[in-house]
Amino acid sequence: MAVTTVYKEPAPIVDRENPLESMMSRFNIAADILGLDEQTYNVLKAADKQVIVSIPVTMDDGKVQVFEGYRVVHNTILGPSKGGIRYDKNVHLDEVKALAAWMTWKCAVVDIPYGGAKGGIICDPTTMSPGEIERMTRAYTLAMKDVFGPDRDIPAPDMGTGPREMAWLMDEFSKTNGMTTPAVVTGKPLVMGGSLGRTEATGRGVMVSALAAMKKLGMDPTKATAAVQGFGNVGSWAAKLLSEQGVTIKAVSDVSGAYWNENGINVDEAIAYKNAHNGRLDGYTGAQLMDNADDLLLADVDVLVPAAVEDVITEHNADRIKAKLIVEGANGPTSASADSIINEKGIMVVPDILANSGGVTVSYFEWVQNKQGFKWTEQMVTERADRIMNDAFEKVYATSQKYNIPMRIAAYVVAIDKVAQTYKFRGAY
After folding, report:
1. Where are the beta strands (DSSP E) in 231-374?
2. How much is the mean pLDDT over the chain?
3. Is the pLDDT of residue 19 over 90?
4. Which residue numbers are catalytic?
5. How far is Cα 377 from Cα 235, in angstroms, rounded to an integer?
6. CA 124, CA 22: separation in Å to the nearest integer?
7. How does strand 64-75 pair with strand 225-229?
8. Which domains does the chain show, CATH number per domain?
């Protein structure tokens, strides 16, 4: 049987900032503000565990391809580690390490008892059959059986994965464990113990954060305008829920381009069109296709929601952003080099580790329900998630006022302080 190895870790992309370095630059500033001692600093900056596995998969043509998979557990001081698994051809270890650390701070800032982790497989799921993806998912789960666990490390969906992959992961782990173990993973289908309210949770958290920030800025949502980059799960829900609060969504974008309507896009209509056209906005006539999709970031709107990928706001375009408020739906959409430019312009930023933490909050609720063996109503889920998001925003905002620092650094200060205090109470040896 022929065996080929595919998708080695790609070389770093030279025109993008290293995501790990971006995360650490913010971490270092917050650590200085807190006066973190050297011992605690060294413990918190390092990942607890980095696991790299080779995943042999029999493809549909009978050949075996060997994929490379990762799982980085950054920290478990607050509780079991939590974080998604992404299937993407551009996955690389530094990205996974950065995302794992962001998960630690994200869980801490919303005060849920999790540490941070992240996983990924270098692959192109768009070229693979469902059977190939299933075999790869199950092989990855088996390779990580000593890492995953409902009280150790709890995966979730991320880029390129969803409820289907989480169902396979839960099933494979349950087989190795000898019992059905729904709490090992979140983001599952509802019939398998998934939570009501999970699908829209991240986008809803973006909406709640945006409204809280607009209140601080004295902005009336019914008179405000917004542009949303990325029209996947997070961006589409954020756009829909913001529009329901009266915000005029003037621009949205996906891989097919950016779409502008001066009078406002009918978001429900755009979502229906996307769902009817293989998840893409190609040919959408409810708005005008912009000449350059990146111009959406520079649109003349009040609120900008980058909800696509990392490093879209950089030192090269930050000085041309017109929005008064940026609410980060994606992980790491703003490079560290752009921070000072945005701060000098007086733009308020609700950072990723706060704005998009609605997803992990409801993932936590799913885990709690699985452990309880009891299902919550959707109203219970959304009310509790909204309260947690609002409380977290107020704490970060108060910290930004106390130290006269941007919201991004304030979020890191809140998160690092919580983890550092817990570390000191737990002790070291």
Report:
1. 248-254, 257-260, 288-289, 303-306, 325-327, 348-350
2. 92
3. no
4. 118
5. 24
6. 26
7. unpaired
8. 3-182 (3.40.50.10860), 201-350 (3.40.50.720)
